[in-house]
Amino acid sequence: MTSARPITIKDIAKRFHCSPSTVSRALNDHPAINEDTRRNIKEYALEVGYQKNEVSLSLLNKKTATLGVVVPSIGHYYETAVIEGLHAVLQPLGYTLNICVTNENYLLEKEYLTKLLSNRIEGIFLSVAQETYDAGYYEHLEQVNQRHTPLIFIDREYETFETSRATVDDYHGAFAAVEHLIQMGYRHIAHLKGPNGLTVTEQRFKGYIDCLRKYNLDISEELIINTNFKVESAIVPTKRLLDLPLPPDAIFGVNDQVAIGAMRVAKDRGLRIPQDIGLVGFDNSPITAYTYPSLTTVGRPGRKIGMEASRLFLNQLNASEDFRHENIVLPAELIIRESTLRLS
Amino acid sequence: MTSARPITIKDIAKRFHCSPSTVSRALNDHPAINEDTRRNIKEYALEVGYQKNEVSLSLLNKKTATLGVVVPSIGHYYETAVIEGLHAVLQPLGYTLNICVTNENYLLEKEYLTKLLSNRIEGIFLSVAQETYDAGYYEHLEQVNQRHTPLIFIDREYETFETSRATVDDYHGAFAAVEHLIQMGYRHIAHLKGPNGLTVTEQRFKGYIDCLRKYNLDISEELIINTNFKVESAIVPTKRLLDLPLPPDAIFGVNDQVAIGAMRVAKDRGLRIPQDIGLVGFDNSPITAYTYPSLTTVGRPGRKIGMEASRLFLNQLNASEDFRHENIVLPAELIIRESTLRLS
């Protein structure tokens, strides 16, 4: 460097193939920058005689150490587990989380993103609202990218939108649940479905249908009834199923709540579980290990999703110019318990 | 008004015995100001020839319509119900909520409050972290008051701190639960307690003890065992209780999860519920109506607490000078179900 022009943060960034804000963070000992990178950048800065320009740095340095978490709801075990995973990784690094609940509403989601950006949060974890997803709205996400704020999809996501994501494979989880029922000898399997149109509903429904097809079992419309995910919404549908001329010998519930509602109705009818009827839920909420009988279910690794999403965020923050978005899909895990363990 | 000095917002505020920001909101059709007040203020402003001073107003008008909700956790049914109640009232008025989880940590609570204030939120709903409560820290709350930002306690609170609050009467809820067990003929009543020191634990424990005293029943240390609120934490304690030379004929659980864990152990031992052993939980989480047998429990009106807290916030926002803080205590409600309904 022979020029008399003073060395700037941009010069250093160019040298390390990273962003100016990474350099700024490294020089200011920001905890999100790994130690080697910090040391290398600081040594180089010293070597080339870099001098802080306090004025131009003031904006870059004004880090809020705040992250936004935008989710459709916090009423279920899975979402709180994801948030717990985010906390577990990010709080020790000095980050705080602003949790925003959209109630599946697009306008609210958009408003939250705008407000988070204007509060200069450093990253956003987003599970897209159903309305947003259905309508295919993108622009409010593009404003996040334009601000170079890392955006990580958790749970519900746009497949075609270019960003990192950590999601669970619901489809194969549902498939495995129904396959297990078939292997246990159940043949006439009903499905207590979620509300139509929700991604999570349709993925699990598809897993159910495809598995029945694979084993050449009949798909019967009268064995598929909607619920709203709540335990009480399973009561009337289950009664209807058990009143059929040919009632089901197993029920696959869209989630644990619904399967527990079905369990109650089956017991009130004097049915033995799993001998007379098999039951499977979804989510592996803590209670399912202690119902009587305990409930076979499909576990979604919520906490792990939160931790993986944190890692994706930190990677992007420290990214060099050849950074590529990552797509993490964690498997859902079948957990076999008493409610299906029919030994014939 | 004969003076040539132009009429200011402060003059109007004095006339209506309200704060300047209420006047500013009324003139700008802020939804939180009721219609009559808005109309009266606007008519008066027109009458006295008030002219907006754009510069001095710019700060006042820069409302964020954002509120902070600072809670120790979001993992239980009760907290999400409170937040749902806040959403139900405040979202239609155009407010968004920033939810912050302190994990019972004082430093984190303090940091969240500072960040929320620096983001110019318009009000804070707070359930004090256990650490804060135990140490009696106040200063971080006083900074909220100094900024004239409404602060509403929900759930856990400082009795002596001067602010509005909406809480549930846990003590009498627990008392009623134990009294009901006694009326059903149970005499040797155990308590699966929460972690020592937590307010919610100690209030329920006190209700249990005082009720036993009232009915001259023995208080036995071996019948009181700690849990951590989680379903799995009830398993070993319940086994220990049932292995006693004189086992309990009823168990009062600190929450529903713990009572459901106890239910599982009792069933595995072949005990009939409620004939051989009675069980009571706390919270009225949705699942309790559908366990087999259904669980007697104490309902906390979480959604209603959220709605009352919203009302307290709006009252304070529109307050005149003689504003007094309000203290709302909602009763907990005993819900009698199959797990205690022993008809002798």
Automatic annotation (TrEMBL), chains A, B:
UniProt xrefs under PROSITE patterns: HTH_LACI_2, SIGMA54_1
SMART domains linked to this entry: HTH_LACI (SM00354)
Pfam families named in the record: LacI (PF00356), Peripla_BP_3 (PF13377)
InterPro entries associated with the record: HTH_LacI, LacI/GalR-like_sensor, Lambda_DNA-bd_dom_sf, Peripla_BP_I, RNA_pol_sigma_54
Domain named HTH lacI-type: residues: 7-61
Keyword Glycoprotein attached: no
Keywords for the protein's UniProt record, in alphabetical order: DNA-binding, Transcription, Transcription regulation
An MF annotation (GO) of this entry: sigma factor activity
Listed name of the protein: LacI family transcriptional regulator
UniProt organism field: Dyadobacter jejuensis
